[in-house]
Amino acid sequence: MSRLILVPTPIGAMRDLTLRAIDVLRDADVVAAEDTRRSGALLAHHGIDATLVRLDAHTVASRGPALLDAHDTVAYVSDAGTPGVSDPGADLLRLAIVAGHDVEVLPGPTAFVPALILSGLPVARFAYDGFLPRKGSDRKRRMQAIAVRDHPTALYESPHRLVRTLADLIMACGATRPASVSRELTKRFEETRRGTLQEVHDHFVAHDPRGEIVIIVGPAGASDAHPGASPHNDPTGDASGPHAGAAVDPDATATALRSVGIEGRTLRDALQALGVPRNRAYRAALRPDADGADPPDRS
After folding, report:
1. CA 276, CA 89: separation in Å to the nearest integer?
2. How far apart, in whole angstroms, are the C-alpha atoms of residue 81 and residue 278?
3. 78: which of 32, 83, 95, 201 fits an S-S bond (Cβ 3.0–4.6 Å)?
4. Residue 264 Cα distances to 14, 254, 281, angstroms
5. Which helix (H) or strand (E) segment is 206 a member of?
């Protein structure tokens, strides 16, 4: 039985490697890396002389089991950040668990946590959606889920797809939804751009984005003018939020959400988050074959 240790590595600044991570990388029998060139530069910077082998998304299934069987301690590093989050580390971890090996994950750098905090939005609760599908119904379904959440969503995106993704988010969430885009975190040209989805979209249309990018999309019903303000929460169910009134067609919105599997109380809550009055949201959330009588007033 061997031990697999997932080791977070810096997302930019080389000095963000922890002292414990240095010890583990130095003492491991072998260091498996998503990219040996990038990881080799990091190890050399910290004076770590370790056996380094490549284990990426294309080779983890074929090479991972034998690598774990051949060594007592295997350290795994991804290109940057914490392995297991949107990278092959998750696959290697599952292989190790199924084979009965011991597994350990060190704490350390990851990009979406500082980006969430830098957004200025309320992040006591949040969703992490990683990279969105590039096209098709899965992409649309994920966008619609983001649109109705009552908490922020963190996304990763590549520079050349950023503007398109922001445009799609505008279609799903509305142009005035609060958002932020952070890029090159911990590096020399770190930038966080805050505003509405339309504002950050227009900025990156005019300024070609570069580097690693995290998008934070604010919650449904959040203040459009001030990213970081608390979500609208009207206990009376009155339509007074930024998404209230004629901007939302309750029945059409309910039909669209139901088509992607959102039903019942979740559907009702999503409509309320978009500013639909409570009783109207309740009626719209009823299935088409349900009794059409008005529900009792639960306010």
Report:
1. 42
2. 42
3. 83
4. 49, 10, 11
5. helix 197-206
The DSSP annotation for 82-143 comes to: -TTSSSTHHHHHHHHHHHT-EEEE-----SHHHHHHHTTS--SS-EEEEEPPSSHHHHHHHH
- Report d(CA 32, CA 258) in Å as an integer: 44
Q: Tell me the pTM.
A: 0.72
Low-confidence ranges of the chain (pLDDT < 70): 222-248, 259-261, 273, 287-299
What is the distance between the alpha carbons of residues 43 and 38, in angstroms, rounded to a whole number? 9
pLDDT value of residue 259: 64
- Using DSSP, state whether 273 is helix, strand or coil: helix
Q: What are the b/e assignments for 37-75, b being 16+ CB within 10 Å?
A: eebeebbeeeebebebeebbeeebeebbbebbeebebbb
Task: Convert the pLDDT of each residue in 15-70 to its tens digit.
Answer: 999 999 999 999 999 999 999 999 999 999 999 999 999 999 999 999 999 999 99
The CA angle 238-240-243, to the nearest 5 degrees, is 115
